[in-house]
Each structure stands twice: as C-alpha cells, then as structure tokens.
Amino acid sequence: MPSDHAVKVVYKGADSNEFFVIANADMVTKWKSDKTVPLVDVVQSFDVFTTTNKSNTGEYISPSKGLLESTFNTTNVDDIVKKILSEGEDKGL
C-alpha cells in the first residue's frame, strides 16, 4: 500500500444511515483528482460497512443488499465504493 495512514470515508444516505469504507488517505486525495487511479490502490478492501446505530461509530457490520439498493440504487460494490469516495467525508479511524 502506498500509505499506511488509513481513514474512514463516510457517506450519509438520505435516510440518515451512514456507510463507509476504509481507505488510504493519500490515495483518496489522488483518486479524487485522477479517476484513473485503480480503486484497489485506494481502498483497503471492497467491504462497505455501516453500524447498528446509523452513525459511523460502533460495531462495524455489513449492510444488507436491500439497504444498499435503497440507498445507492445498486448493489454493485465498485459503484458504491466510488460514490462513497466521491461524495463521502474523510474521518479518522
């Protein structure tokens, strides 16, 4: 990995649920200005997380496909990760 400084990139859905991915801070910035950077270099995994209390704190859980579909209008993980990275906010871990 190009950077060992990990951040949580948080996207807040219209229903107030928060979804996030764990990414490399330097690579998120680079990807936002150059979309040719491979996503595999940006995120630590293609796992999308949420929590049971609708915030970005607490126990990380994987959201259901239904929840992903209702929030992102897709269950395609690549598309969801791109939306989180594009529209989400960087938070520390």
TrEMBL record:
<dbReference type="InterPro" id="IPR036786">
    <property type="entry name" value="Ribosome_mat_SBDS_N_sf"/>
</dbReference>
<feature type="domain" description="Ribosome maturation protein SDO1/SBDS N-terminal">
    <location>
        <begin position="6"/>
        <end position="90"/>
    </location>
</feature>
<dbReference type="Pfam" id="PF01172">
    <property type="entry name" value="SBDS_N"/>
</dbReference>
<dbReference type="InterPro" id="IPR019783">
    <property type="entry name" value="SDO1/SBDS_N"/>
</dbReference>
<dbReference type="InterPro" id="IPR039100">
    <property type="entry name" value="Sdo1/SBDS-like"/>
</dbReference>
<protein>
    <recommendedName>
        <fullName>Ribosome maturation protein SDO1/SBDS N-terminal domain-containing protein</fullName>
    </recommendedName>
</protein>
